[in-house]
Amino acid sequence: MNKELLIKTFRNTLGAAVYIFLVSQLMQNGSKLFGETDTMFTPFVILLLFCLSAAIVGGLVYGQSAILFLNKKNDEGVKAAIYSTAWLGIYTVIVIIALMFAKQLGL
């Protein structure tokens, strides 16, 4: 197991998770921040944010894999993709468990 690659993928996917959290908070509190706006620009801005988020998260999660593939390090590229996907899975399970405990505690 390549410890350096494991740490890089952890760092990158943690950055993606933080970014996802921040965007979710923006969407959750959008009406508080921007008021109740329902114009023709609302769907446009949402789609722009979606595309930007896909590019940012895709780069953070699979950018390391792409760099390794381009440098002809195919085995490491595959490992980086697997590690990144596993980290995201671990984050997801942790958040689901935390939400279940929060619900049980009435938070």
Question: What is the radius of gyration?
Answer: 18 Å
- Main beta sheet, described? none
Average per-residue pLDDT, rounded, comes to 91
Apparent shape: flat
Low-confidence stretches: none
Helix-strand makeup class: mainly alpha
Percent strand equals under 5%
- Secondary-structure element series: HHHH
Percent range for helical residues? over 70%
The quaternary structure here is single chain
Overall number of strands? 0
| Structural domains: how many | 1
Could you explain the architecture of this structure?
Helix content is 87%, strand content 0%. It is mainly alpha-helical and 107 residues long. The protein is flat and about 50 Å long. The model has no long low-confidence stretch (mean pLDDT 91).
Short description:
By secondary structure, the chain is mainly α.
Features:
about 110 residues, mainly alpha, about 85% helix, about 0% strand, single chain, 4 helices
How are the secondary structure elements laid out?
Layout: H1 3-28, H2 30-34, H3 41-70, H4 74-105
Helix pairs in contact: 1-3, 1-4, 3-4
